[in-house]
Amino acid sequence: MKNFTNSVGILGQRRIGRDIKAALSLIAEPLKAVETEINAQAAQFDPAVRDYIAYAVASNGKRLRPALALLSGQAAGGTITDDHCKLALVIELIHLATLVHDDIMDGAEIRRGQPTPNAKWGNATSVLLGDALFAHALKLATSFEDSSISRDIAAAVSDVCTGEIIQTQRRFDLKLAEADYFRVIEMKTAALFAVASKLGAKLSGATDTEMQALDTFGRRLGIAYQIYDDCLDLAGNEERAGKTLGSDIRKGKLTLPILRLLNEHSNGHHAEVSRMLLSGAEADIESLAMLSRDSGALDDAVRIAQEMIEEAITGLDLLQQNAASAALRTVGECVHDLVGGFAR
């Protein structure tokens, strides 16, 4: 698939990267401890599968979900404890499990600049690898003294899996409504953002108002981040992204920019756009990517994602105003700028 240039540019992306790094400096030490613990998880498995687990968890990912858990704990006025770090670990292991399964379903060969587990070992082994990570994360979650923590985590995992199933059911479904799309991404992506933010605060003894505010912040940020990822898949640079792009159209996932192209910006060519979506031909995939950009469909998706982030940031006014809540604002602003890079 052709690589487009994100209008943020390399310098802009570096600036965003510096801003995120500055925001996360507040939790640098506990986040480093979580990273160490993530990489140490392979030792908890049978020697026959340790190398597989070690490969799946070793990455240079953004660790955004663990960061939300830690920052939310501090934003609620608490001090980072071992339980906060354990929550961050559990959430990231669940996320990594979903990536293993996503890459299988999408036929992706590259993730974070490295061959995906399915590209290395095939689908059969990779399905079981993802399952093992899910099971391990849920086992760790049962060790919280407050059993409601593990129940909330399990409920989020259920949402993630249900969202993925619904998305798979609705592939190549040209009657998919935007409301259906938002329901899917709220479950499959935003659920983990929300539970990380809410439970980080809960472990700090937050009020119900604070927990609800952070749940909403995480949920809206997660939805916006998924829209960003959808835009990236359609109009990003594969080398810069470090993963296989263009898989959404190939696999029949009707993302927000594509739904906008089909229903709002087809300019009387609805039947032709529909044919291209169903064809699977590489030339049609290239054309759809170009059309989504030139027609304004991609701009629509960017605008909706940015409005979602602005709402998320406004909701932080309900929190204590401290360095951690300010850092959460910065994280939101950085995602706002990232997705804005796809606007014309």
Write the layout of secondary structure elements.
Elements: H1 9-24, H2 28-40, H3 50-57, H4 64-75, H5 82-106, E1 110-111, E2 114-115, H6 117-121, H7 123-141, H8 147-169, H9 178-202, H10 208-235, H11 238-241, H12 247-250, H13 256-263, H14 270-279, H15 282-295, H16 297-315, H17 323-340
Antiparallel strand pairs: 1-2
Describe this structure in words.
This protein is mostly helical. It has one domain: Orthogonal Bundle (Farnesyl Diphosphate Synthase), CATH 1.10.600. Helix content is 73%, strand content 1%. The chain has 17 helices and two strands. The chain has a two-stranded antiparallel ribbon with strand order 1-2. It starts with 8 loop residues before the first helix and ends with a helix. The model has no long low-confidence stretch (mean pLDDT 92).
List the keywords.
344 residues, mainly alpha
